[in-house]
Task: structure prediction
Amino acid sequence: MKLKERLKKDFRLWARSLADLFLKRECVCCGRQLEAFESDVCTFCLAELPSSYTWISEESPADKTFWGRTRIEKVTSLFLYNGKYRNLVYSIKYGGNIRLGARLGRMLGEVIAEEDIDFIVPVPLHWRKKRKRGYNQSEEIGRGILLALREKNPGIKMEKRLLKRKDFTPTQTRKDRADRWTNVRDAFRVNLKRAKALTGNGKVPKILICDDVLTTGATLDACASLLHEALDCKISIATLAYVP
Result:
């Protein structure tokens, strides 16, 4: 490790130790007080993260969510959305914890590092909701994925203008399966100018759509279907969590 990087790391640990004297930093999952070397999630919770292992199988339950619907190359989720680990998504989505979003996004990117991806497309947030929240959690997750994938694919890019959310739809959190599909059926549109630019060289772009949670797949299916209609492309999906 270079001296400059070592000094920066030592300073961060010192700053966290000092902060712990005045501010109680707690694990997002279990509420345990964090050590100086820990950030957001304690070592114990991180070690027990309920991995989905969706990247191992070509026919995982997450993949099967889209069978008979939109043509998807691969679906990958980092962990199962259950128990205390739901707090991870809640902290990112509603708690303003964009640092955690990028961190888990990078972990997600590391398990799909072998996939051939040209563009990362985060599920868009309506401008009114983004202005109120201050950020789009899917973009923050996408930034983490981008950092991981760039190590092997320097040319990969984040494409935030390809999809737009045209309708301000209510949250999906408390809706059943049928209502989720109705809620997002016509909520998005494709920026045709950007779509044309992506295919201008005659190459079939490989797109990764990213989001926080895969539940029924309604939102992701709506996005993927529109992209398939607008341009000749291959689409994969990556989410932090999967609801089994």
Observations:
- Residues 54 and 76 are 5 Å apart (CA to CA).
- The mean pLDDT is 88.
